[in-house]
Amino acid sequence: MSKVSTRKLLRMIQKALYWIIPPVVLVYIFMKIDINSFIASIKNIELKYYLLALIIYPVFMIIGGFRWYYLKKRLVDSAIPFSFSLNNYWIGLSIGFLAPGSIGWDIYRIIAAARKYGKLVRNTFVAVIEKLSGLAACSMIIIVSFPFLDISSNEVINRIMVFSYIVFFGIAVFTLVAGLFSRRFQFITNIAKRAQRSLLDRLKNTRFKFSQYLIEETGGEQEVKYNLKRVIPGLPVILVSALAIQLVSSYAIFILIKALNYDLPYYIPMFITPVMFFIFLLPISFGTFGIREGAFIFFYGIFGMGQEAALLLSFLTLSGRLLNVIIGAIILQVTSVKKIIE
Asked: Is pLDDT at 105 greater than 60 in this prediction?
């Protein structure tokens, strides 16, 4: 079998698993839980806490929109308005909701910003920096919250800690070296180009009418210097924004736990939320369905939450995310953003 045929076969298998895994996992979960207990948990939801959590969910979207706006101001165009960033940040979630690992969300935002303000490569670079800041923030929160857990004997938690230390210090060292020596060492530029090329390849496979513009923007004559010295002065703002997104998200889940009449301390969802971020980056299910429910049952089960309550908690958090998806869809319908991606 040729290399091309092998790649096609592997892609077919990947797509098949992508659509098969979520329903299989969900069926297995519902076979294992007590349905009567699950229904009783639904009936006992404290509505006031649930509604409070829903109010919190749009907050971290606003913070995320600000981070994207701040990065584009520094690296793309200082004239970009905050309203454009916030609207398209929300719309991107709505359009890319079912895409694996949030890649659809990133692709839409790159396309929208590049069509409006140009500089496709710089917009792609912004998306890479966003991902790195998110990974750094998640690893920091895991490291800080770990001493409060008092379950150091759990092997899975210990491995997560080791992974978080590797991610955090890896990103810190890379940022330091790239910021100080990006003009001297070619390998920094090569790493940046590989990360960017991966995203650009995905852009070419989107359904948006963007192909000709993409070819023009990524022609051989274009030269971009990856000098992170322009980013480093803004790192405190970028990192604080990434931390705020995770902390607000975990607080919303903390309120949802109260809605289920469970009394877990805040540092537990504060630890688990960034762990979920790492898991949901994996492109193994559409909209994280199936994987989300299994992860909630596993991790919250470690801290004493019953399977039925943990499953319901996963559905409640999903409803918060769907609220943001609906808001994004409404913004898409009432603005002229469609013209940007046609």
From this structure: yes
C-alpha distances out from residue 220 to 76, 204, 215, 223, Å = 20, 16, 10, 8
**What is the amino acid identity at position 34?**
D
- Give the Cα-Cα-Cα angle 250, 111, 119 (nearest 5 degrees): 110
CA separation, residue 335 to residues 3, 197, 340 (Å) = 46, 31, 11
Write out the two tokens for 89: 């940040």
8 Å CB contact between 309 and 259: no
Q: Return the closest-CA partner of residue 173 out of 161, 183, 163, 165.
A: 165
CA dist., res. 195 & res. 74, Å (int) = 20
CB neighbours of residue 178 within 10 Å: 21
Q: State the virtual CA torsion across 208, 210, 215, 216 in degrees, nearest 10.
A: -160
Q: Are 290 and 22 in contact (CB under 8 A)?
A: yes
103 class by beta-carbon count within 10 Å (0-12 exposed, 13-18 middle, 19+ buried)? middle
Determine the Cα–Cα distance for residues 197 and 203; give it in Å rounded to an integer: 10
User: Model-level pTM?
Assistant: 0.81
**In the structure encoding, which two tokens stand for residue 103, read together?**
């890649």
Q: Which two tokens stand for residue 4?
A: 């091309």
Give, in degrees to the nearest 5, the angle at Cα 275 between 274 and 278.
90
The sign one gets for the Cα dihedral 67, 249, 138, 143 is positive
- Give the mean model confidence (pLDDT) for residues 179-184: 59
Mean pLDDT of the chain: 78
Task: Tell me which residue of 121, 119, 126 sits closest to 92, measured CA to CA.
Answer: 126
Question: What distance in Å separates the CA atoms of residue 264 and residue 243, rounded to the nearest whole number?
Answer: 21
- CB neighbour class for 127 (10 Å; exposed up to 12, middle 13-18, buried from 19): buried
- Indicate if the pLDDT at residue 225 is higher than 60: no
Half-sphere exposure of 29 toward its Cβ, with a 13 Å CA cutoff?
26
